[in-house]
Amino acid sequence: MLQTRSILSLLILTIMSSLAFSADDLTLSLRYQTETTEGSGRYHRLARHATWKPEETAVIVCDVWDLHHSLNAVRRVEEFAPRLNELLKDARSRGMTIVHSPSDCMDAYTDHPARKRANDAPKAAQLPDDIQSWCSRIPAEEQAVYPLDQSDGGDDDDPAEHAEWAAKLKKMGRNVGTPWLKQSDLITIDEERDYISDRGDEVWNVLEARGIKNVILTGVHVNMCVLGRPFGLRQMARNGKQVVLVRDMTDTMYNPARWPYVSHFTGTDRIISHIEKFVCPTITSDQILGGKEFRFKHDERPHVVIVIAESEYETNRTLPVFVSKYLGKQCRVTLVHGSDKERNEIPGLEALMTADVAFISVRRRTLQPKQLAIVREFVAAGKPIVGIRTASHAFSLRKESAPEGLADWPEFDAQVFGGSYTNHHGNKLKSTVSIAAKTAEHPILAGIESKSFPQGGSLYMTSPVAPEATILLTGTVEGRPAEPVAWTYQRQDGGRSFYTSMGHPEDFEHPKFIRLLLNGVHWAADLPPAKNVAIAANVDQFKKHWSLMLVPASWEAASAGVLKGYAGVAWYRCSVRPRDKWIDPAGLMFELPRQSRGVQVWFNGTELKRRPDRKRGSRFLIKKDLIEANDANLLVVRIDKGDGERGWQVAPRVLSGNRKLDLQGRWQFRIGDDPAWSNIPLPARYGTSTDIVFEP
User: Fold this and answer.
1) Which of 44, 359, 385, 431 could pair with 475 as two cysteines, CB 3.0-4.6 Å apart?
2) To which H or E segment does residue 19 belong?
3) Around Cβ 678, how many Cβ atoms within 10 Å?
């Protein structure tokens, strides 16, 4: 009996010891995105749980400098740095390794113990290739479209404030373009335990010497340094570390005046989404510190969650485009797509739990009870809801009950939208939409002319609507009674809803419908109607900003006919990343086959001299002193209208002795003529994007 008790006591102590050890581990929720089906271009935003041992985990703080050339960048760092410092303090107390990496600032730390500690770390048995170099792209990003234009440097300052700030920096004796000298004093460096390094090989030595398997990246700026530095996300991901980004402890360099013309904070969201799809998962600071995740004080965007689970009207194609073009300035948007494999699953629907507005585009889906409960709880909380087209019969089957184990909501239309959808008129019957009497002043109709317009697709039979509904638009088919097409509804739970039975793909081609839907989302989110909404023709995108263009191709073919007949000046640009061993001692040669007239070429901002060649077209010498080896280089080509070919029929290439690099693929393209387009105001590693990189 005594022996049995001893064994039990030992077992209890072992279990308690194990539990105590586990309590110190990091339990994280890693958010990532995966395609609904390979090649679909649509993504589920999901999370998986991970448990990391602190002693196997490092936090790298990237470029949280003391000063920056952008005043707004400084302000945002000063806003989140105190919480970042608390995160580092907590991580340090758990036994995690802290590496401070303020690039270009090592002179300030020559005698610092943390700098010496990094220098003295044992050399790793094997260093990854290019670990000392900037990483412009990893293989997973090769087919991705980069989500924003940062080629202007991303400065979002007010011009007058920026000028005053530049003058202040100059008065301080700082270089106005690169004023940083050290890490921000808001971040504590522990002399006894931390490390300081901005070198990829040194950081790798530290990680290997300490047995680090997991890396947490934080700092600025996520679209430039955090991604690309030798110790950044890409290098960690491609070299086998389990790496995550702390998505609420970072910022972007993005100017809302550049494509895609969204708010600064939406620009950050777009980069984080790119990272979750192609680079690594993300976490938030509250997973380590507790409390709530950090949010910038000026980020007042309502969170709109758009649930898309219908294939009848292709809203899985039209709504993401609508979001990208029109909702990014005022709203934070999460897209949730139904499963392509299992009809009655909507992965990521949990996003509604943090939403301010729900936007429903679902058709006849029955869900697992716990998933439908999320929708029911959102409605019961009195939160605003927008519905489009098939949302009236989102969670009910036609005259059938839900299959066993699944749940439906046949009263959704009546309870949430105040409607009574029964069917629709024939697809061949054309409907005309008009503004309802006495509602022209409603904010949802702001900017919409009173003249009737055609509806795409069939007219839904939606009447009668509830007395609490305010009808905004009606639709008529010849010889049939008018039907409500758009209305608002004050729900019994206290919430308000906006619904429109429009939403056919042809509707998304009509400016009035675009304005209606945009105003409807703004109204639901308690925002004023959008002003100066530009619903531009396709050709304007090539004039207004750089767009992707396949090479080789004619302008007409590559633009799907949009540029048919255009014969003006055109510009192309890409990024070339040659390795030092690949570069010929005499330099490189850019060759543009079959182009002989009206061509100018710039390499890293320096115009190259043309060498006509009757057999090869045009050649341009790139002298070796212009080339940044193992790094991104900006290549820009201007084609004058006098050339006449209206595109490239053969891909250009870069020659290095007998070796060649074909520049066949995606370039950025723009029509018009501005000498400033020959260069960008910062090194190509920062300003160019992953989707236009060519390397041997």
Assistant:
1) 431
2) helix 2-24
3) 18
Q: Which range (67-71, 363-367, 611-615) has the least confidence?
A: 611-615
Helix, strand, coil % in the chain, rounded to nearest 5: 30, 25, 45
Measuring CA to CA, how many Å separate 470 from each of 412, 448, 518? 18, 17, 18
The runs of H, that is alpha helices, within 199-285 are: 200-209, 225-228, 233-238, 264-278
Segment 7-28, tens digit of pLDDT: 444 344 334 334 434 458 999 9
Q: How far is Cα 551 from Cα 668, in angstroms, rounded to an integer?
A: 10
Indicate the residue type of 413: D
The closest of 367, 307, 314, 372 to 335, measured between CA atoms, is: 307
Within 275-316, strands assigned E span 282-283, 303-309
> Cβ distance 393 to 363 under 8 Å?
yes
Residue that is written with structure tokens 């304005």 in the block: 515
Peptide bond into 681 cis (omega under 30): no
Q: What is the pLDDT of residues 267-297, one digit of tens each?
A: 999 999 999 999 999 999 999 999 999 999 9
The pTM (predicted TM-score) of the whole model is 0.94
Q: Enumerate domains of the chain plus CATH numbers.
A: 56-137+148-289 (3.40.50.850), 303-524 (3.40.50.880), 539-694 (2.60.120.260)
Secondary element (H or E) of residue 109:
none
- The tokens of 202 are what? 């040194």
pLDDT band at 595 (very low <50, low <70, confident <90, very high): low
